[in-house]
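Margin note: ligand = adenosine monophosphate.
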Amino acid sequence: MDFAGLLGICRANHIQLVVVGPEQPLVEGISDYFEAHAPDIAVIGPNREAAQLEGSKAYSKEFMQRFGIPTATFQSFSQAQLEEANTYIRSHTLPVVVKADGLAAGKGVIIAQTHTEAEEAVFSMLKANSFGESGHQVVIEQYLSGTELSVFILTDGLGYVLLPEAKDYKRIGDGDTGLNTGGMGAVSPVPFFEGAFKQKVIERIVEPTLASLRSEGILYKGFIFFGLINCDDEPFVIEYNCRLGDPETEAVLPRMEGDFLTLLEHCASGTLQTLGAYPTEDATSLTVVLAAAGYPSAPERDKPILVQTEPTEHLRLYHAGTKQEASGEIRSAGGRVMAVTAKGKNLLEAREEAYKAIEKIRFDGMQYRKDIGLDLMHLYQQKL
Ligand code: AMP
Ligand code: GLY
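Resulting structure:
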């Protein structure tokens, strides 16, 4: 978040292109800062105004409503509107979804099974300040039931390139149980993202979003991550993110066959329209996150990590929450410690390779999901 410090590092190292990974600096205006202080350095990531698509749920819901982009029906309420919020909840079918307006690292969403639970969630956000400023406004919305998927594009505000899609596994436990996390695994491709469904996503969601941004006078330069849900073959937007996803990216990047840098350069220079469809490898990649004991609540850190396998063309070992000691030893330094991605001809092969590699990685308290991709197996088999 130290924008001046980052610019100093860029200058010292002759950096010409910056790709912003996480949402917080985007929402707080890192792109605007670089544009003002270093217009010669290209930044891939939207400016503060455009990043509101992720930074404010009330903003993004109103944006979708204004332009008829399919999303759950909703209303938003400010701190002064507690009574109105409660009246809305009482008239709502169950379950009902309550969201803190601002960034809350995936923790600001409550799926309430009773009206009382929803009222308590709203009270804790609006009045008890449990989410700080993020919760000074809330969105209350309809619950959508279906399978979620993550669709990514890179846009320069004029053209766009569709990247490989992925499915994320958000809960800590097998069978989608336990606490929500940043994501415990991913699979790409998603077998039902094809044909008529894919066409609906492009025609009703991706292209209208870009046209709507333009009509609002917003120049969006960067990735858009469409968090979607498939409800009986109808796509709806759960949320927009103004970046790539973690761990989706770890599964998506290995399937991208073209030169990634060229893609970024075209985005920076506003010439994405001149590129055709981006080549994607017809293979399946599967990512499993290795998390620390105690994650997501209170991860244990500083455990030595033993890695007895080597990355190959088909196997990538991503370091996330790790650090290297002066001695060369690798230790854990965060909640999600590593991500293992294997690529195979099909889902079965990718799953086998990923889990085989994990057997060769160890640290104290290491936890991971054993069921990544299992729910998609029948869909893949239908396609074979
Ligand atoms: P968000 O931060 O908006 O992505 O919400 C986090 C997670 O809550 C999503 O990935 C969904 O699993 C769930 N969720 C959010 N909104 C809804 C909704 N309207 N219906 C069902 N599930 C939802
Ligand atoms: N894996 C979900 C995210 O990056 O937001």
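Residues 72, 97, 99, 106, 109, 111, 141-144, 148, 170, 227, 238-239 surround adenosine monophosphate (ligand 1) (CB under 6 Å).
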